[in-house]
Structure formats: structure tokens, C-alpha cells
Write a structure and sequence with these properties.
The structure is a homodimer. By secondary structure, chain A is an alpha+beta fold. Chain A contains 12 helices and 16 strands. In chain A, strands 1, 2, 3, 4, 5, 6, 14, 15 and 16 form a 9-stranded mixed β-sheet that branches. In chain A, strands 7, 9, 10, 12 and 13 form a 5-stranded antiparallel β-sheet that branches. Chain A has a two-stranded antiparallel sheet with strand order 8-11.
């Protein structure tokens, strides 16, 4: 099919992008370093107000939906469904400046660049800013995009409470972001999320761009094993029911299992405690967490099954075990044609890119249930994220935003490039 | 050699023994259950004053030495060196009623029985009550007997400080137990300590008496392993330096090593923590403790060597490791002839006995450096100790004290039964 050429000379304002990232990063500054801007707090309110101002400056019409997602839409020349990008601006505790914020600020930069260029693309281009992506203050994570994807019902989402006793609904009203628009109002034809990698792969391979073709599934468990506490000197090994040793053996086996499943599958035991917790007492109770991630839904389920079989064996051996799932996502595969388009545009822009997986969760995995979706990653120095030391080279931040601009422009001018209308 | 018969009909007053154990057990009652009577506290002072009163009632001359050990001596008919028994009355937090206290109260019962019988034995019989055996408030443990054995110098012991900032010397003066007698004043020819087993072996084999022929050595370590904290989703297994997984593998290997060394050797990992300690962060730092016990000094040293070799391998693999020894005793072998005498007297009294090891530390292991020493164990229900649920059947408590009486009487009347004077 015929493809009108896109204005290859169009470029985002890199200085403005970096300046805005700094300015946004100052909101919710944490005295211990970094910023702490949990969802729907006063700091989040201040950041949201800044985003709304920038969207307006970029020529976008701003609407707030019922779950607090911000929709900024730059109207196109036709009534084609909009092309959307976006991410989140809530943070973890003592966060870096780029996780989520980069994709939002770069999206605004794309709108402002298109707006300033004078000739609008055929389809509208929208920036979505999702509520409570991190899930630190309110569980589950990815809340705004879950509601858009109808993974969680709006009423249930509004009724969620934080540990401090506030509901989403109350907090949205309090900070002035309880909108009236339906979360399903915007029906994008495509969604592309730009994000920092939060892992070490791109830097290790000296690449600028990752085209994310899938998000690993994850399965998080809190496992409790109860044995019998006993004197460490007088209880022979054969007469022990050592909850600590048993928990460590199981944890090591689950980690080994992930190693054997191979890249990109991972397992992490991030916390473990023993009770009563004395140097000379055999632990009577052990609690640990396991975070298992896998790119195959079958393989993830097999890993979960192995955990449960191991616990059943322990129950039969006289231990008492308990396992609670604290979070779970199945693996998500992004749209292959959209990934191909991103890869092609990256090549046109001279950016060294490869396809890859995301080990972390992102709003785009929810949007994949709404429309063809994919993600762009830029490198994270040493893979550090969720940490004030999170860093991406300014040059790479600008290159990622440039790729986003040209990919969205290509999609907005030629949405049929990627998918025949019948497949939408 | 000729052995004058001992009065086999002589018997301790079982009711008085049990009543005194209850009365002593009420001092320092902990509102959470059990009793907390840490060394040189007001509760310890009250317990010591009660012990001094009972020793006086039993006809003993009471002296306090410079490290606060109580010496209660029932004078014999000759100037032969005294036969000594004894233990401790300080406790751990939320202790049972018998650990240490049983040996002291039974010793007093022996003196009182001998005293009431009219005819005193040839050698004097002494009860020693040692300061700070548990080592909870002041490190190291076994302090009173260490000073007697010159394992720790008196001046160094007096200068030790607790976590709450008090010195042994100040606290001894404050509670009125800074005596003037030298800790070496009493030069016993034999020492026999009666104690609860604190392990499950006697009960499991339906025996009443354990003749303790050795105390296992122990080696306690606090091990720190530093790796690199990273995102649990985005860091491939091969690129991790997971301090937690590495610590658990090492801990499991040390436990397996003890299992392979076989009974009676043990290893316990009683505490472990990961930092930063989040479900979705690869641990950057892991800290665990290991308690290794072995009846062979060579085998214990080999176990320690394996720990250090493993840490060196981790250092070479890019981890940073640190290991600190927090307590260490070499294995102690008790006097074989004295164990033989205890076994013979147990058989005469119709008590089912076996020789065994102690996995826990006791003052007798220090006294073994002063004179031929040994221990008598009575069963601990389910091996529970250092716990308010510590329990020994009253019948067994009386039987153990009866054995102590007749063994001490035999020794006091015939000290040469056990060892020719030249071997003393």
C-alpha cells in the first residue's frame, strides 16, 4: 500500500525534554534522596497538575477519567481512532527520575513537536497517564490500565483502600482528579509505551533501543514453613524438624529451577526470616518470599506446580506449610507487526536496536488487551532502577523520544501500515 | 583397696527438693511466662540470698569469692580436699525452672541430708554456685567457672560490661556479692554437676540417667555476604551476584556437612536476613549465623576450615565476605574413672543409665581443667529447654538428686576410689 513519507527532519526539543524530567523529578523530593511520590498523595497531585499544564501547552485537549487517568489528545486531521502512548508518574519510595515519567514527558514532547510543526497527522495522537502503576500505596499495581482493560472493574478499583485507610475514590476526589469520563472513552488503535529498561541488557550489548515484544509473567508467593524449634546443641540432626534448613533448601531448589529453565526466566528469594531467630535455636518457623518470572505461561505454571508439590511433600513429612500468592500476571506477548514497525523506524533513525523481553510489569501489558501494543526501552545504567541512582544517558533519553515521535507519526499517518482495519 | 560401705538407706527429701525448685523458680517471674533472672540483676540477688539461706540451713559454711561464685562447704571429718558439685542460678530470658537451678538445689539437698544424718563423710562436700553461666547479660558465658579455671583472668572478668553499660564489678558490689575469697580458694578433688539434659535422647530411650563423658565443642559464626542488589525481573540469572541465594547455598552445605559427619555432630543456622529485603529485589547483602558442634577437636576445626574455604571461593568470585566468631569452646572429655563411678552408683541405685555427650555448654567443662570432673543428666521432656515449658518428671528429679547424694558420699568417703592421689 502507498505510504506518504513522514517528515524525517521533524525533531523533538531534547533540552525541553530533559528540563521537564528534572522539574517533574523535583516533586516529592525525599530528604533521604530520590523522590517519593506515591499514588494520589499531595506530591502526585502536584505532579499531575504540572502534567496537565504541559499537555495544554502542547496543544492537547485534557480529560480526566473516573479512575484518575489523564487523557491528553492532540486532534488529528481525520476521525480515525487515536494512536496512544503513555506511562505513569507515581513512584516507589526513594525512586529515580525516569521510571514512568520518561514515557509521559516524552509523549508530551511528541504532541508539542507535532503541534508546533503545524501540519497535524491523520489520526489523533494521545498521551495516557495511568493511575497507581507502582502499586506501592494501593494494591494491585497497574491499576489505571487494568481498569481501561477491564481487568479490574471500575467500582472495585474505586473501593480499594491503602494501608493508611484511604480509598482510591476518596483520594481521587481529595486531589481533584476524580474525572467524569469513562476509562474506556479513548479507543486507541495502537499503544506504544516508552520506558527505561530497568535492566542491564541494552547497556551490556551497547545498544540504544530495545523493542519489547513480550512481558514476562510473574508469580509472587509468601511461603511459611513450620517445623519444631529446638536446642541447637542437644537435638541430633536426624531428630530435627528444622524449618529454616528446609526453607533454604526449597528456596535454593526454586532458584536452581529458574536457572535450568534458562534465559529469560528468573526466580528471586528477596526476603527470609526465621523464628525464634537465635543463633543456638533450631528454627521452628521460616517465612520467605519467592518471585518467579517466565515468558511462557505453561512454564510459569509448571514452576508454580513444582513449588506446590514441594510443599505437599513437606506437609507429608510432618511440617506445616502455607503459601499465599501476593501478585500474579500471566506473560503478555506484544503485537508482532507493531514491533516490526518500531524496529524499522529505529533502523531509519540509525538507532542500534534489538527485540527483547521485559522482566518488569508495565501498563502496556494491560493495553495489549485493548489494542495492538508494544514498548520501546532505552538503556538503564548498570540496570539500576527503583533507586535514586537510576540513570540513562541524556543522549539516549533524547534518542528514545525521537524514535517515539517518528513511530507515532508513522502510525498516525498510516495506521493501516501495521494492521488491516479488519484485524483491529 | 578397702571400701567402707556407704549408708545405702540415706535418702534426700524429695518433697523439699521439689518445693525449693518451685520457690526458686518464682524469683524473677516474667509476665510473659517463665522467669527472667539475668546475672547480677535484682532478681539474681534475691535468688542468691535464698540460696545462701538454704546453704546455711543445710549446715554449710558460706563464702563468696571475688567473681561472686557462692561456695557452700559442709566440713568433713578430715582435711582431704573437698568433693564439689554445683551449677548456676542465672537464667536466660523466659527460662524454665530447672536449667542450672536443679543442680544447685540438689547439691544443697545433698549437704542437708548428710548434715542431718549425723555422721559426716571423710572429705568435705561443697556446693558451688557459678556467676553468669548463661552469658545473656555478660559475654562470655560460663564466667564464674572460667575464672576458677583461669580460662579468663579475674581482672578481665570484673571489667566486662553488659549491653546496658554496667560492669561485673559494679554489679557484684551493688547486689552485695563482691566477695573477698579467691575463686581458686576451694581446691576440690572432684567435681560432679547434675543437670537436665536439655535434649531428647534420654526420654527417647526411656532412660533415667545420662552419665556425661564429654561436652561437644562449639564454634559460632556470624557470616556476612555482600553481592549486588538488583531488579528481580530484569536481571538475568547469569548476571546476578545474589547474596541471598549464595548465603542459603552455603548454609545448606554447612548443615549437610554436619549430617555427613554423623551423630553427635550438628550445625544450625538459627538466623538469616537479606537486604534490602523486598520481594522483587535480588538481595545485595545476606547475614546469617551458624552454630557448629562436634565432639572431636579435629573435626570441629575441619568444619571451620570448610566454612573459611567456601568464603574464600566467594571472595574470588566477586562477593565480599566477612565472618566473625562470636563464641567458641573446644570439645571437653570428662574423667573416665569418675564416669565409671557414677555409672556404678547408678546401677547400685537401680537407675537405668547410659553414657552420653552434652551438646550444650556447662560449668563442669571449665571445672574439668581444675580437677577430675563429670556430669549427670536427667531427662528433659521433648528436649525442650530455654523455654518456660522445660519439664522433667518430679520422680526423675528426685532420682537424679539421689544419685548425686550417693555418688558424692562414695567420693567423700573414698576419694581414692576414683584416682590415686598421685593423679590429682
Amino acid at each position: 500500500m502507498a505510504r506518504p513519507s513522514t517528515p524525517a527532519a521533524l525533531a523533538i526539543d531534547g533540552d525541553r525534554l530533559l528540563r521537564r524530567l528534572r522539574e517533574l523529578g523535583e516533586i516529592g523530593a525525599d530528604p533521604r534522596g530520590g523522590r517519593t511520590r506515591l499514588a494520589l498523595t499531595d506530591a502526585d497531585k502536584a505532579a499531575r497538575e504540572l502534567i496537565v499544564r504541559w499537555l495544554s501547552e502542547a496543544g492537547a485537549a485534557v480529560r480526566i477519567d473516573r479512575i484518575g487517568n489523564i487523557h491528553g489528545v492532540l486532534e488529528g486531521r481525520s476521525d480515525l481512532p487515536p494512536i496512544a502512548t503513555g506511562s505513569h508518574i507515581d513512584t516507589v519510595v526513594r525512586a529515580g527520575a525516569y521510571d514512568g515519567c520518561y514515557g509521559v514527558v516524552a509523549g508530551i514532547e511528541v504532541l508539542q513537536t507535532l503541534s508546533a510543526a503545524g501540519e497535524l497527522p491523520r489520526a489523533s495522537v494521545a498521551v495516557l497517564v495511568f493511575t497507581n502503576e507502582e502499586g506501592v500505596r494501593f494494591a494491585p499495581d497497574l491499576l489505571g490500565s487494568r481498569v481501561v482493560a477491564e481487568n479490574v472493574a471500575l467500582e472495585d478499583a474505586l473501593a480499594l483502600h491503602s494501608a493508611d485507610g484511604c480509598s482510591i475514590d476518596e483520594e481521587l476526589r481529595r486531589i481533584g482528579f476524580a474525572g467524569s469520563v469513562s476509562p474506556r472513552e479513548l479507543r486507541p488503535s495502537h499503544f506504544v509505551e516508552l520506558h527505561i529498561e530497568q535492566g542491564p541488557m541494552l547497556e551490556a550489548e551497547d545498544l540504544t533501543i530495545g523493542i519489547v515484544e513480550a512481558v514476562q509473567g510473574h508469580s509472587w508467593w509468601r511461603v511459611v514453613i513450620e517445623g519444631v524449634a529446638n536446642h541447637a546443641g542437644t537435638t541430633p540432626m536426624a531428630l530435627r524438624r528444622d524449618a529454616g534448613a528446609t526453607a533454604m533448601q526449597l528456596a535454593c531448589a526454586l532458584i536452581r529451577d529458574a536457572e535450568e529453565r534458562g534465559v529469560p526466566n528468573v526466580a528471586t528469594v528477596g526476603t527470609i526470616t526465621f523464628e525464634p531467630g537465635a543463633i543456638n535455636v533450631v528454627p521452628g518457623r521460616a517465612t520467605f518470599t519467592i518471585d518467579m518470572r517466565d515468558d511462557s505461561v505453561y512454564s510459569l505454571r509448571r514452576a508454580e506446580q513444582r513449588l506446590h508439590e514441594a510443599l505437599l511433600r513437606l506437609d507429608r513429612a510432618g511440617y506445616t506449610t502455607h503459601a499465599q500468592c501476593t501478585s500474579r500476571h500471566e506473560p503478555v506477548v506484544f503485537d508482532d507487526e507493531l514491533c516490526g514497525l518500531l524496529q524499522r523506524v529505529a533502523a531509519q533513525r540509525g538507532l542500534a536496536a534489538r527485540r527483547m523481553l521485559s522482566g518488569a510489569s508495565h501498563d502496556a501489558q494491560m493495553m495489549a488487551g485493548v489494542c495492538p501494543s508494544a514498548m520501546i526501552f532505552v538503556p538503564s545504567h548498570r540496570g539500576i532502577s527503583h533507586n535514586p541512582a537510576e540513570h540513562t544517558e541524556p543522549r539516549q533519553l533524547v534518542q528514545g523520544a525521537d524514535l517515539l515521535l517518528h513511530a507515532l507519526l508513522e502510525l498516525a499517518n498510516n495506521p493501516e501500515t501495521c494492521h488491516a482495519p479488519s484485524s483491529l
